[in-house]
Write a structure and sequence with these properties.
Length: 121
């Protein structure tokens, strides 16, 4: 026992205890992160991010069909001024989701992809 009334054994026990709590916290945070990553992967499997809205569920598509969305860089919300699926000649009207003769799965009228072609007027 030292002058503070703390024995070496007590000190080591407390230190190990703190380390154990720290390790447990670390492992729990890793577990949470892994679950979040798993959930993210599930969302990716469903399709695009929440920006895709009601037309983001691609769970019924084959991998090949899903690939048409990826290879044409389809997004559920266009950021390209004046270009939307709704004014693309390949868009097949539907609400809330249409379809497309090129990109498979539900298509958001507000979406966009690199294959956009102006609708004939
Ligand atoms: S081809 Fe046209 S309708 Fe089809 S996803 Fe691309 S922009 Fe939308």
């Amino acid at each position: 026992m030292n002058e503070n009334g703390l024995s070496r054994r007590s000190f080591l026990s407390m230190t190990l205890g703190c380390l154990s709590v720290g390790c447990a916290s670390f492992l729990l945070s890793c577990q949470k992160k892994t679950e979040a990553e798993r959930q993210g992967a599930t969302e990716m499997a469903k399709g695009e991010s929440a920006a895709g809205g009601p037309c983001a569920d691609v769970s019924g598509l084959t991998e090949q069909e899903k690939q048409t969305r990826v290879s044409n860089a389809y997004v559920g919300k266009s950021t390209t001024e004046g270009k939307f699926c709704s004014n693309c000649s390949l868009f097949i009207e539907g609400r809330p989701c249409g379809t497309c003769s090129l990109v498979k799965g539900p298509i958001n009228p507000d979406g966009y992809c690199t294959a956009w072609v102006a609708k004939a007027t």
